[in-house]
Design brief:
The complex is a heterodimer of chains A (215) and B (197).
Chain A lengths: L21 E10 L10 E4 L5 H12 L3 E4 L5 E4 L26 E5 L26 E7 L3 E3 L2 E12 L5 E14 L2 E16 L3 E12 L1
Antiparallel strand pairs in A: 1-2, 1-11, 3-4, 5-9, 6-8, 7-8, 8-11, 9-10
Chain B lengths: L2 E10 L16 E5 L6 H11 L3 E5 L5 E4 L19 E5 L26 E2 L8 E3 L2 E11 L6 E13 L4 E15 L4 E11 L1
The chains are: A mainly beta (215), B mainly beta (197).
Chain lengths: 215, 197
């Protein structure tokens, strides 16, 4: 099998240092079962936009199909022209216990969590499901666009409740979006990072994804 | 890692091929980091992520619009040849861009009259595999048949975007770049969006 020689990112070829104009952070904080914070706020720099994010951006900008890797590991052509339009759609409503894994928005995993890999990651490592014995997913909540010095902030959060009877250790966190593929839509992992959070029984954790656009 | 964006400018022949020196390298190519998102870009992204409309977003005419997340077009920069409303656009103003910009300050119009450039079709090659991620490439060739030299000082990218009242043109990127395009020559400008782990 030929070994592919990858190009060096152009950002590292500029004479001036590369500028990060869109930066991402994860925030997490333990809560009670009502979502009221009970512990300190932790802020962790996110390291990953995966290839699916680039694929969806090309799909939109170019108005042409672009292959992505869905959460089942299957290559699918993200597409335009379908109604309703689904691009990076993250919104996910709380589900009754036992109705699957919640599917999209902020999701958590409990596996061994190898380092994120842009082009081969397609799902969380050890996806934690939604339901009794696992975590109860609440609504994904997107806050209004916030003005910050030099730019704007997108802020997305989700509360997970643990009533499983035992502590649950989260090892990786991710963003999963719904994107159009012909003839409907599929789920695609957009970002994944390794973060350890121990969620005690009868408590919750609120996980936030923060995206700062600055100039 | 975050998203990096860079801007390239390359002297090309009329077929879009870089003009090469004897050593095989382009005779006139620059590569620089960009500096300027404008507010419409995160606003459209938020609308699409949240699956909800987003009010108070301005089109290139400066009119406030409410961005809708469906149906298409969403962030469509695929401008055809001759279109100076969206895709990569260039201008002559040296005013520093700001995050509140809604259009280029002094846009160069499509045509062959004095001070005008011919806009070719937007090109989006397949995603490029790069170390640690993927690159989205957005390019456009500009031909100068105006009879005189034109100095490009500003560049941006605008998209066709669904709103609650129409399909608007909205600026999403705006940068400064100084490039002289002599009469009867062509230049390709490229925005590279690099998503890295």
């Amino acid at each position: 099998m030929p070994i592919e020689t990858l190009e060096t990112p152009l950002a590292y070829q500029c004479e001036a240092p590369p500028l990060s104009l869109v930066e991402h952070w994860w925030e997490h904080q333990l809560t009670d079962l009502l979502g009221k914070p009970t512990g300190p706020l932790h802020v962790v720099k996110s390291n990953s936009w995966l290839a699916n994010m680039a694929a969806q951006m090309r799909t939109r900008l170019s108005n042409t199909d672009t292959d992505g890797l869905d959460t089942g590991g299957v290559t699918r052509a993200m597409t335009n022209g379908l109604t309703p339009t689904r691009g990076w759609s993250l919104q996910s409503a709380a589900l009754p216990a036992g109705q699957g894994i919640g599917g999209r928005g902020i999701l958590l995993g409990s596996g061994s969590s190898p380092p994120p890999e842009a082009t081969t990651d397609f799902n969380l490592d050890g996806t934690i499901g939604h339901g009794v014995g696992e975590l109860l997913f609440q609504d994904d909540v997107m806050h209004p666009l916030v003005t910050i010095p030099g730019g704007f902030r997108i802020f997305h959060e989700k509360l997970f409740l643990n009533q499983s009877g035992a502590a649950i250790t989260v090892t990786n966190v991710a963003i999963t979006g719904h994107s159009n593929v012909s003839p409907s839509s599929n789920l695609f992992l957009m970002s994944r990072d390794n973060i350890t959070i121990v969620v005690p029984n009868d408590s919750g954790v609120i996980v936030k994804f923060r995206e700062d656009w600055t100039v | 890692m975050p998203l990096f964006i860079t801007l390239e400018s390359t002297l090309v022949d009329r077929h879009g091929n870089p003009i090469l020196a004897p050593d095989g390298k382009p005779v006139d190519r620059i590569l620089q980091p960009t500096h300027s998102w404008v507010k419409q870009f995160p606003a459209i992204m938020k609308s699409s992520m949240q699956e909800i409309s987003e009010a108070g977003v301005f089109d290139t005419a400066g009119a406030a619009r409410t961005v809708d997340r469906t149906p298409d077009p969403i962030l469509d920069a695929s401008a055809p040849a001759g279109d100076d409303d969206h895709g990569i656009l260039v201008g002559t103003s040296t005013t520093a861009p700001t995050e509140d910009d809604t259009n280029l300050n002094t846009k160069i119009l499509e045509g062959t009259a004095a001070g005008q450039l011919e806009h070719q079709v937007m090109i989006f090659p397949a995603l490029v595999n790069i170390t640690g991620g993927r690159r989205v490439v957005c390019s456009r060739q500009f031909d100068n048949n105006s009879g005189g030299s034109i100095t490009v000082e500003e560049i941006g990218m605008a998209v066709r975007q669904r709103t609650t009242v129409d399909i608007s043109f909205m600026l999403i990127l705006h940068d400064l770049i100084t490039q002289i395009i002599a009469d009867a020559t062509s230049r390709v400008f490229t925005y590279n969006l690099e998503y890295l782990v």
